[in-house]
Amino acid sequence: xxxxxxxxxxxxxxxxxxxxxxxxxxxxxxxxxxxxxxxxxxxxxxxxxxxxxxxxxxxxxxxxxxxxxxxxxxxxxxxxxxxxxxxxxxxxxxxxxxxxxxxxxxxxxxxxxxxxxxxxxxxxxxxxxxxxxxxxxxxxxxxxxxxxx
Length: 149
Known about the structure:
The model has no long low-confidence stretch (mean pLDDT 91). The protein is 51% helix and 4% strand. It has a two-stranded antiparallel sheet with strand order 1-2. The protein is mainly alpha-helical. Strand 1 (118-120) and strand 2 form a beta hairpin.
């Protein structure tokens, strides 16, 4: 999957507030806003505490980025508690549009800072190429969750 509006719009047009999740407890708009936070993290707009165990972080990074393994169902995220946070956007359409903009911000950030590495709360510093792999797996995971892929 490419991380661009042209590829994502047709997939996300299928997503409505009534689209049932096939696993997990996120509702459609919660999922979109969750993905958006990950893009904001990758473009250094949101920062989280660095992983405490560098060796464990590198192991997670090696598994998630450098293998063909899919993101497992039920994976607990460091950026979200047991329950999803309150919604930020008024509508699902607004949340989708904001996501598209944050994806562009991600690309622009790394175009302007090609050597940058930004911190993932579980894996430590990631390069642009590593974030692309992670974002692709993350989108695939959640798009499968809602039957979009």
